[in-house]
């Protein structure tokens, strides 16, 4: 690592060394933080751009989605939600970028660029203009780690970087296409300074940029801030990052003490160890967290979590289930789970062909049988397979009532195990999904259409006997409670939940139920409120969840002997 000026540490943190792994740096808390609390907010990123395909559906400056957008009249490639964003983008980067997109259109007849190529081009523009923050981070001896030697040794990744560097330089007009081709033919690219600098910038982007998942639309893009880039990885992280437009918030996922290193996860930390190691290859280190060194599965990692108790206020308030899961590890080894995951992962589910998608999902379900036998509902790839079927019911086939038991199953058997803190965004979204599904099934029930549409007697029986509106209201109260602890007020699912709650509260004849649920939400220990929640919400949710495996097996199994042994 080059000795370089350190980025400024946000308030309540300092940049420290990273004992145990060389001379790297880390972010250390200088005070304690409560679970969900904001550790630091990062505005003014060096890079904040939508994905290539998202360039036409996302404001290219503030990254807002689902708003009216107007295209830049110059390049017609970028779009903006208003004149203010367009002006800000023009001033910061687009004045030069606009010419680049005109070249892209002339040379390739395209109006977008792959994300890494555009991100690199933006950094090169800023460096060329002598922008101080970009120079401090990406310039010679700049502050960001790039793992350049490691990347060079990976011929496939390095080959991709070379192509991306060539594209950015050519489209920026910094290198003629013929010059690049000629140098590539002679094998002389390594001695071209411009080219090398571009490849090194790509290494830094790859090492430090976040895949900015857009909260509601699942669109991603790139976000890079030199301060946020100081945070190291752990597969048992104590913090997480949320994005809202051009802002990132680093929040505590667990109680953090003064002097603790703050660590987030760069990858999905709930997949098996070999898959995690594969995903971390791009970062050039081997993770030394307990999940990795002891090869803990999701249940074992959950048992060690300091925030299990928070689940007392959740869809799955039975804490004993998290403390003492009834899995049977004797029937499948960690190595066998790795094999199942690898085989499962090699079978890609096509997005646009529903019939083929179901065929692949059936194959994948077969692979999951040993996990079903071991009652390892939360061990991948079992939950992801159920999730695929749930999405197919909910989106592709519009069979919400069949998706509902699967959503309840995932929310009670899987989500609290993989993300123990109930304020994690994916958990809140899962609860919100149940609320939305219940509002639809309640409507069908009220119109007497449920039994006509769904021949599954058990399901219809549970739903018609349940107070679906109270169940829905309870879900919304959970969403509002946890989103206010772990997310911003602007967060899409929170705003949606507040609106739905207002609608439900305005319905006539629900005063008693609403008052009991309000009591329970204010104090989950309140005897009357809790008894109501248990009987009217938890029990039917569990009854629905208990149907899930039968539904999945019926749809995907085709095996006469039922796998369900619950
Ligand atoms: C985003 S940077 C984090 C800050 C970095 N330590 C630095 O000094 O710039 C990512 C890089 O930090 C290092 N790193 C992050 N987490 C690590 C860990 N748990 N063990 C070893 N190295 C880690 C790796 O080199 C990784 O590519």
Automatic annotation (TrEMBL):
<dbReference type="InterPro" id="IPR001214">
    <property type="entry name" value="SET_dom"/>
</dbReference>
<dbReference type="InterPro" id="IPR046341">
    <property type="entry name" value="SET_dom_sf"/>
</dbReference>
<keyword id="KW-0479">Metal-binding</keyword>
<keyword id="KW-0862">Zinc</keyword>
<feature type="domain" description="MYND-type">
    <location>
        <begin position="59"/>
        <end position="98"/>
    </location>
</feature>
<dbReference type="GO" id="GO:0005634">
    <property type="term" value="C:nucleus"/>
</dbReference>
<dbReference type="Pfam" id="PF01753">
    <property type="entry name" value="zf-MYND"/>
</dbReference>
<dbReference type="InterPro" id="IPR050869">
    <property type="entry name" value="H3K4_H4K5_MeTrfase"/>
</dbReference>
<protein>
    <recommendedName>
        <fullName>Suppressor of anucleate metulae protein B</fullName>
    </recommendedName>
</protein>
<dbReference type="GO" id="GO:0008270">
    <property type="term" value="F:zinc ion binding"/>
</dbReference>
<feature type="domain" description="SET">
    <location>
        <begin position="8"/>
        <end position="267"/>
    </location>
</feature>
<dbReference type="InterPro" id="IPR002893">
    <property type="entry name" value="Znf_MYND"/>
</dbReference>
<dbReference type="Pfam" id="PF00856">
    <property type="entry name" value="SET"/>
</dbReference>
<keyword id="KW-0863">Zinc-finger</keyword>
């Amino acid at each position: 690592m080059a000795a370089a000026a350190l980025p400024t540490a946000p308030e309540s943190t300092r940049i420290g060394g990273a004992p145990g792994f060389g001379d790297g740096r880390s972010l250390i808390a200088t005070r304690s933080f409560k679970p969900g609390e904001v550790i630091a907010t990062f505005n003014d990123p060096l890079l904040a751009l939508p994905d290539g395909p998202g360039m036409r559906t996302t404001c290219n400056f503030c990254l807002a989605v689902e708003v009216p957008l107007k295209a830049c009249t110059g390049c017609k490639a970028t779009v903006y939600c208003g004149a203010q964003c367009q002006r800000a983008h023009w001033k910061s980067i687009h004045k030069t970028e606009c010419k680049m997109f005109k070249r892209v259109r002339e040379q390739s007849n395209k109006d977008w660029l792959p994300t890494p190529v555009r991100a690199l081009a933006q950094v090169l523009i800023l460096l060329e203009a002598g922008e101080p923050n970009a120079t401090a981070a990406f310039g010679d001896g700049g502050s960001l780690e790039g793992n350049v030697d490691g990347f060079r040794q990976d011929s496939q990744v390095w080959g991709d970087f070379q192509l991306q560097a060539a594209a950015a330089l050519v489209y920026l007009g910094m290198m003629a296409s013929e010059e690049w081709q000629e140098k590539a033919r002679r094998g002389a690219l390594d001695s071209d300074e411009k080219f090398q600098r571009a490849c090194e910038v790509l290494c830094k982007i790859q090492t430090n940029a976040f895949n900015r998942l857009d909260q509601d639309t699942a669109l991603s893009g790139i976000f890079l801030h030199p301060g946020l880039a100081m945070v190291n990885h752990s597969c048992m992280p104590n913090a997480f990052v949320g994005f809202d437009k051009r802002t990132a918030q680093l929040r505590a996922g667990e109680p953090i003490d003064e002097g603790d290193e703050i660590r987030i996860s760069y990858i999905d930390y709930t997949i098996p160890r070999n898959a995690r190691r594969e995903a971390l290859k791009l970062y050039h280190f081997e993770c030394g967290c307990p999940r990795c060194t002891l090869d803990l599965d999701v249940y074992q990692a959950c048992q060690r979590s300091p925030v299990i108790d928070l689940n007392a206020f959740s869809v799955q308030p039975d804490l004993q289930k998290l403390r003492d899961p009834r899995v049977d590890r004797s029937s499948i080894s960690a190595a066998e789970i790795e094999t199942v995951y690898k085989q499962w992962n090699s079978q890609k589910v096509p997005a646009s062909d529903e019939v083929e998608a179901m065929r692949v999902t059936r194959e994948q379900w077969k692979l999951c049988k040993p996990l079903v036998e071991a009652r390892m509902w939360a061990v991948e790839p079992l939950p992801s397979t159920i999730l695929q079927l749930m999405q197919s019911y909910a989106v592709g086939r519009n069979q919400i009532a069949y998706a509902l038991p699967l959503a309840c199953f995932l929310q009670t058997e899987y989500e609290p195990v993989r993300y123990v803190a109930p304020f994690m965004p994916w958990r809140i979204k899962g609860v919100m999904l149940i609320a939305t599904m219940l509002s639809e099934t309640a409507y069908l029930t009220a119109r007497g259409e449920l039994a006509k549409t769904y021949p599954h007697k058990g399901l219809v029986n549970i739903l018609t006997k349940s107070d679906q509106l109270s169940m829905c209201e309870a879900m919304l109260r959970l969403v509002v409670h946890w989103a206010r602890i772990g997310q911003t007020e602007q967060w899409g699912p929170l705003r949606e939940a507040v609106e739905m709650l207002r609608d439900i509260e305005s319905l006539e004849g629900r005063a008693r139920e609403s008052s009991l649920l309000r009591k329970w939400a204010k104090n989950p220990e309140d005897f009357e409120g809790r008894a109501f929640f248990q009987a009217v919400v938890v029990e039917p949710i569990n009854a629905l969840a208990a149907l899930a495996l039968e539904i999945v097996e019926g749809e995907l199994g085709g095996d006469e002997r039922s796998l369900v042994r619950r």
